[in-house]
Structures are given as structure tokens and as C-alpha cells.
Amino acid sequence: MNKVANIIEAKQLEKKYVTDTVETTALAGVDLRIAKGEFVAVMGPSGCGKSTLLNILGLLDSPSGGTLTFLGQDISRASERQRAKLRKQNLGFVFQSFNLIDELTVEENIGLPLAYLGVPRAEAQRRVEEAMERMGIAHRRSHFPQQLSGGQQQRVAIARATVSNPSLILADEPTGNLDSVHGREVMALLSELNEQGTTVVMVTHSPSDAEYAHRIVNLFDGQIVTESINARKHAAELL
Amino acid sequence: MLQNYFKIALRNLVRNRVYSAINIAGLAIGVASCILIFLYVKDELSYESHFTNADRIVRVAGEIKLASQEANKFSLSPAALEPALRRDFPDIEHVTQLVQERKQTVWYKDKSFNEDQLVFADSSFFHVFDYPFVVGDPNTALDEPQTIVLSEEMAARYFDDPAQAIGEVLKFSRHSYKVTGVYRDPGHSHIRARAFLSRSTHDATLDEEERTNQWFAMGRYTYVLLQSPEQIPVFQEKMDAFAQRHVIPWIKEHESDASMRFVLQPLRSIHFDTVYGADMTAPGNISYVYIFGAVAVFLLLIACINYMNLATARSAKRAKEVGLRKVVGAFRSQIIGQFIGESLLITLIAVVLALALVQTLIPAFNSLTGKNFDSNFVLQPEFLLIVLAIVVFVGVVAGSYPAFFLSNFKPADVLKSDQAPKGGSASLRRVLVVVQFTISLIMIISTIVVFTQMHFLRNRNLGFNKEQIMVIDVPGGDSTLVKQLPSLRQQLLSNPLIEKVSNANDIPAEELSKHMMLAELDGKMAERTFQIMSVDYDFLDVMGIELKEGRNYDRRMKTDETEGVIVNEAAARWMGWDNPIGKRIEYNDRDLQVIGVVKDFHVQSLHTKVEPLVLKLRPQSAGYVLVRLKPENMASTVRFVENQWQAFDPKHPMEYFFMDEHFDKQYRAEAKMLTVFGYFAGLTILIACLGLFGLASFTAEQRTKEIGIRKVLGSSTSDIVVLLSKDFAVLVLIAIVLASPIAWYGMDKWLQDFAYRTELNWWTFALAGFAALLIALVTVSFQAVKAASLDPVKAIRTQ
Ligand SMILES: Nc1ncnc2c1ncn2[C@@H]1O[C@H](COP(=O)(O)OP(=O)(O)O)[C@@H](O)[C@H]1O
Ligand SMILES: [Mg+2]
């Protein structure tokens, strides 16, 4: 493997939640490197800290210990404002429960990141159009989320996550709420994005979804227990 | 981005119609009240401001102190003040004096009207006060004797066009006056005149001594135009030396131990002055300005609290959106901006509604307050500025808490697929509800106390019987009338439905003059000022005033007019007379002896104590004719009196009123203000209840599942209603505990303004508390019953 720059480097990441009397350790010293262009799947039983890890990697939450380097920049102690800035410039998120804004139409939901980036109207419109075409939801542009099926909603969410051309997409159980047909559709889309150069980190329970990844990280009780290379995928790529 | 915010805001408004309606209605009512109160306050504060020189005009008030007596305070001053001020202070720009003339009948060709608010002035008056003239030259209009300047309103009664008035002659009973000008009354001044008559006409009736050296003859208003407002304190300091120079020698000459001082009142403070009294217009009450100002702020605050409570209560529904916006990179400041913008939008909608509301309410508000607000005030730039200020104030106050609260959500928390966050701090909402109800309760309690006091005033025994007295207001100064009074009396008494007839110069609820007399004190004669009423033999009988000791004036006693005097109990008490009959009073160089003492009766409103009073016999007093009617067939008796009067005096238009109405009129301005206050109190509780309604429906919604489970487990509907209402009842109870002492303190203060007052009762507070509790419970249980009657199975299924 040639020397690829890492997009994220986590060293000894720790996360503790303190509520009233109980202290929960969600992450207990996680070391992880994600290289540019990689597709990484994070797996593990419920409650082992997958979402916590993803949120920290996605700069939605800050670790209680350890260091986190994002594109060569140490952001373990970055302010919320700096993290928000990095998020909107580099990151896209896809969630299990879609998390679309109910009061906005498909088109408006997709355009939201561009609005916060301050992309000019015409340019934004063009990119939203493109994203809708790519996800095959252009005909639903003025529908509200509740008027769409789960699969369609997730495609809108992916369109929203990609519209700003982020270098990294974080997906937390993106197929969790979908039937298998729609699930495969979503995986195909993520895979395609990855092939076009976007780095993807995905949490999943489904081994078949994990098949799409280059590398699988297994988490247990807040620690990485095994890491494995997806040989089939690698082979395919080398061809 | 703005467009995006705007869309979200509008879609949320439409989607949550009930909440939106509550918020917008509450804010609209609050803002509308605020605007009305603003108009009222601004109006009250704008007195005199239209005069160019307002800031450097002062009125010279006088205080006379007799040995052991509190200083008597007069807004009036002596004629001698004017020439003395001119002589001593050549650097003041102008000194001018006004003298009030009694009500007069005025004739022009075939027209005649009784005119009051007639004022003697000279041309220098118009240098000090720039009245806008429609025709004529203010610089010279009143230079000649027997000239008159009319207000447009008065001119219109006699002439089709103001220009026609110039040079025409109006006939009064004693003089004729040539019209030399017509002015437009600017209103909003403590000076109110239908016409200004040349003062030289009046001054000609005074002798040199009266004009220049009678320092205790407090008969005029004196105004001084200074070079600058800064001169006021400087000038005030000089006034003590001035009094020393002029008044003290004169007092010494009269071997009196009195003293006198002059007080300068800045023109714009006069409207709210209650110390010096005796004005051409009733003074305003600055405390009402403060109270209404506070009420406006309270109303807005309560509406804002509704917004804050409902917005945070429903924050769970917006949490996901906030989280998402943060995920895609929104800064916290952008989210705060969005929510404050949203509250500004709602406020803006509410304000537009409020403006429409104000437009429709203006006529009713005018009749309620007796003011005359124009409904196109909306177009004034100054007003728009105020409205803008309200929008920003409300938008920011109401919007900032929800904005900071909502923008604080962590996306990692709120986007969890399995649970939604709780709707904000419930304890803060409780505190705010307590605040709302405390304010509402204070206003309700105040309203009850105020109306109890008003009822008390109206029904207190005044010491005379104000019912069934018809009072004919006789235009002054026509001596021919006086001579004919006895025959008029005979004709009136021929009607069996007329009990008694009296004629007097003074009646209750009219300003009485105070005079200095010498009264017997421990065997010596001491200087004292007494209120004085000039009455005839029948006054006590007609009025139903009771004698405590001695006797009434008697026609058969020829000496009563020259040697007898009747005083009231307060006077006897004040002089320390155990046996008042036979005690001596010296007045106008006459030696009088007390022949009777009447029980105290109220000459003035119950704000003031009954003061020491002298009832002086003057059988030729002809200011008023008082007719006591039998209660039967009053209308026809009144017509009979009218006919008799017309036959007796066809020259004067007859004017009459009834004593009870006349007396109650003293409270009318106050009653109006208090009614307005009552309405606002009602609105406060209405807005607070709107908020409670919203909160209750939110709570019920939030607890739907719990209610369902409870019902499955066997709770009855009423158990559920109690469960849901209990929390709110506790809040209202806390509010009662908080509001009671505050209201007690405030109302006790207010009542201290009255010399005669009701006592504060615990039941007032209980009643108000009970009412608030009842209203709150009805509001809440409406939602509770709805929630409790849900089908439990459905309730459990909905999340
Ligand atoms: N906001 C929080 N407060 C307290 N504990 C939390 C919070 N979020 C997650 N946890 C705890 O941290 C652990 C890891 O949670 P999470 O990362 O959501 O697990 P996963 O996504 O693997 O199911 C769990 O034990 C969970 O209960
Ligand atoms: Mg998870």
C-alpha cells in the first residue's frame, strides 16, 4: 500500500459519561487511523461505544481523553465553533433514523449544508439538482420527509451528506431502519461514493453491509478488539 | 438562509396552530394594551410642551403661614406681585397675570349663551404663551380696555366665520367687549380659556392699594418668563429676599405674625401638581402615569413569558432540527439568530394584529379615558419608532431564552434514534407561571380594592343629603336678578312638590375660597384661615345639614347678617371651643359671634378632610339657586322650575344640574382611570390563562402515555383531572402567597391618598385568590378532561 495521508488519527481516545451518580466509560483507549479514500466499517454489540466513537470522529462530541488529529490538525481541544467549521467544510453524516427536518422539503433539506457554507444561490441550486439526480429523488423534490418511504428518506439524507462534496462521510447504521432491498441500495450508493474518492466510516450490525468496507474494526466495551482487512474488497480494488 | 429560516418559522406556525394562536393572541393583546397605554402616558406627559417657551416659564405660587398653623398653599398670588417683580428684576423677560372671571351670560344679536372659563389677561400673556391666532394680532389684541379674544370654539357659537368676529361687540351683563382676535386653543395646558378678556377692564375696578399692596389677596395666577431654564433655581433663591423686602413690612404694618413665601413652579410640572390646587383644569395624577406604565410593561412581560414557556416546553419538537443544523455545520450563534428571528417574526405578526386592534378600540378607549386620540397616529414616525422598539424588545426578551436554551442542544444527544430530550427546564416554567399569576393577582386585588373604595366614597354619609337637590347655576354679576329672588322663591314654593328653596354663592364640590380671620383663642384673638361659604337662611334646610348646637340663621333676627356666624364642628374643634356659642370671630372688620355649630359635612371629595369652615349669612348670594324636590314626579317638577325660571328671567339661558351627580363628578376622572385599570387587570389574567392553557395542553400531551397506563390500572377520569390540575393549583397558591403582601402594601399606599377610606379586608384577598384559582383550574381542567377521556389503548400506543 502506498503512503496515503491519514484523514483521521485517534490516539488513546477515551469518553466517559457522567450522570448524577453513575459514570459510564463508553470509550476506553481507542487507537484508530483512517486513511484518505478508505471505507471502514465499525462493528460490535449494542452499547459498546460505536456511536460514541463515530460522533467523536465526526466532531459532534469531544473526547474526555486522548488526542484526535483531523487532516493533520490536532482538534482534541478545539472550540465548538472551530469544530462546526470543520464539519461543514469536510464532513457528511448519515443516520439510522434519517434525521431529516420535517418542516423542510426534500430539496430544502439537501440544500441546508450549502446554505451554512454560504454557497451562492445559483451554484447551490445546481449542486442540489445534481445530488437529487444522482440519488434518483428529483421527482420528489417538493415532498416533505413524512411523504417519503424509508429508503427514499435515506437517499435524501445521503444526498444531503454529499452535496457539499465532503472528504469524509460518517454513517451510523444507515441501513438499520430499512428493509434489505432498500438497504442494499443505500450500500451501493455509499460504495459508489467511496469509489469516487470519498472516505467513508460506517457503523453497522450487518455483516453483509460490512462486506462493502475495506477494513472492519470490531469494538467491545469501548475498546478495539480486532481489526481485519476485507480481502475480497481489496482484491476487487487491485484488479 | 434567511428564506430557509422564514419557511421553517411559517411552517411551524401553521403546523402548531393552537400554540401559535395562543402566542400571537397573547402578544397582540399585550402589545395593543401597551400602545393604548403609551398613547395615554404620552398625552399626560405632553402638557404645555407645545408652548415654545415652556421650559423657561414658571408660575409663582404662594404660601402663607399664620403663627401656629400649617402653611396655606395657593397656586394664586396677589396682584401686587406683578409690579414688584417688574421693578426688582429688570432682567426677567415678562411677567403676566391671569384673573378668572365667573361664568357669564353673553349676548350677541339674537344669540345668548352662558360662558365659563373666561379669563382676564393682557397682551404680555401672549408673549409668554404663544397661542396660535387665527385672526388678529396677539401683540396688541388685549391692549385696549373692553376687548376680547375668543377661542375658535366660542367664536363658532356666535359667528359663522372667525374673520367676521373681528370688531363685533359681545355684550356681558356689566360690560361690552369688542372682539380683537380669535385663537385656536392648543389644549393640553393647565390653562383653559374659552376667551381672554382685557385685564385692564378688570383692574380698573381695583384701587391703588389693592393693585400694589394687598399681599394676602391671592386672586391671580402669576407667570414669569425667564431668560433660560437655568435661571429657575437662581430666581427661586432671590424670592425669599423679595418677600422680605415687600411682604414683611406690610405684615408688620398690620401687626400680624404671619409670614409668606413664594414658590416657583416650572410650567411643565403644574399639570401634576396637587399641592397648590385651585387650577383651571383638574390636575393629572402622576402616579397613574407610573401605574399605567408599569401595567404596560407587566402585560408585555406576561405575554413574553407565555412565549418563552410554550417555546421551551415544545423544544423537544425542535431539538432534532437544531441537532441537524449543527451536524451540517451551523454555528451556535446562527441557531440563536434563527430562533430570535422567529420570535421577531411572531412579534411582528402580533404587532400588526395589535395595530388593527388598536384602530378598532380607539373610539372606545377615547370614551373610557375622556381623551381624544386620533386613530391615524399610526402614521407618525415617532410612533412607528415606538412600535419598532416594542417588536425588538418583545422579540428579544421572549426569544432569547428559548434561543439560548435550544441552541445549547448537543447534536450527539438529540439525534439519538431512540429517545427525544425532555422539553426544557420545567422548574423555570413553573417559576415563570408563578410570576405571571403573581402579577395578575396583584392587579385583581387592586381592582377589587379600588372598586370597594369607590363604592365607599359614593355611599358614605356626606353630612348632607345630596339627593333630589336641583341646582340652578346663575350666571354671575347680574344685580337685577338678586332683587327678584324673593318673588321667584314664592312662586317656586307654591308648587307642593317643592320642599324648600335656597340661594347661595357656594355649594359642595366647587372650589371654596379661604379667608383670613381673627378668631377667639383662649380669650385672645388669633389669626386663622377658614374656608368660607356664603349662604342664605334656608341653606341648611335645603341641604339637610344638621345643627349640632345653637341655631340656624333666622329672618326675624335682624342682627344675624351683621353679627352672627355659623361654623362647623371642625372649626370649633380646631379653636378648642368647648362652648362654641358666643365665641368671637372678626372678619372683614366686622365683629361676629357664633350662633350655631353644624355637624361636619363634606364640601369636597373624600380625598380631603373636612376643614374648618365658616358659613356666612349673605341673603343676596345669587351664584346658585338650590331647590329641594319631593321624590315624586321629579321630571314634571323640574319642568315647572324651568318654566318659572324662564318667565322670571327670559334673558338668561337656564342651566341646572343635580347635586348628587355634581358631587360624584369629582370622582369621575378617577373612576375612569380605575375602570381602565380594571380592564387591563382583566386582560392580564386573560393572557396568563392563555399561557396556562397552552402549558396544560403540552403537559397533557406529554403525559398521554402515563395517563393511558393509569387508566388501564383503574384510575377514574376525575383522578386524572386532579392529577393534572394539582401541579398548576400549587403554582397559583404560591402566587397568592406572593401577591397578597405586595398588593396589601400598594393598596394601603393608594388608600392613604384618601382622608376617608375603607379598610383592607382579608376577604378581598381570599376572593381574588379564589377567583384566580378557579379561572386557572377551569383553564387547566379543560385540557385535563380531554386527556383523561382518551381511549387508554390509543393513548398507550401513541408515543
Ligand atoms: N449521553 C449519554 N449519557 C450517558 N451515557 C451514554 C450517553 N450516550 C451513550 N452512553 C452510554 O455509553 C455507552 C456507549 O453508547 P453508544 O456509543 O451509543 O453505543 P452503541 O452505539 O455501540 O450502541 C452505552 O453504555 C451508553 O449507555
Ligand atoms: Mg449506536
TrEMBL record, chain A:
Origin, by domain of life? Bacteria
Q: Which UniProt keywords apply?
A: ATP-binding, Nucleotide-binding, Transport
The UniProt GO MF terms for this protein read: ATP binding
SMART domains associated with the record: AAA
Describe the location of the ABC transporter domain by residue ranges: 8-238
Mind telling me which InterPro entries this protein's record contains? Answer: AAA+_ATPase, ABC_transporter-like_ATP-bd, ABC_transporter-like_CS, ABC_transpr_LolD-like, MacB-like_ATP-bd, P-loop_NTPase
List the protein's name. ABC transporter ATP-binding protein
Task: Please tell me the species this chain comes from.
Answer: Pontibacter ruber
UniProtKB/TrEMBL annotation, chain B:
Q: Give the membrane topology.
A: Multi-pass membrane protein
Instruction: Give the signal peptide range.
Output: none
Keywords per UniProt: Cell membrane, Membrane, Transmembrane, Transmembrane helix
Q: Which residues form a coiled coil?
A: none
Transmembrane spans: 21-41, 288-310, 344-365, 385-409, 430-451, 676-699, 720-742, 762-785
Where's it found, cell-wise? Cell membrane
Q: Which domain of life is it from?
A: Bacteria
Extract the Pfam families matched here: FtsX, MacB_PCD
ABC3 transporter permease C-terminal domain location: 294-410, 680-792
Read off the InterPro entries from this record.
Answer: ABC3_permease_C, MacB_PCD, Macrolide_Exporter_MacB
Where do the MacB-like periplasmic core domain residues begin and end? Answer: 20-241, 446-632
Q: Which PANTHER family match?
A: ABC-TYPE MACROLIDE FAMILY EXPORT SYSTEM PERMEASE COMPONENT 2, MEMBRANE COMPONENT OF TRANSPORTER-RELATED
Q: What is this protein called?
A: ABC transporter permease
Task: Specify the species.
Answer: Pontibacter ruber
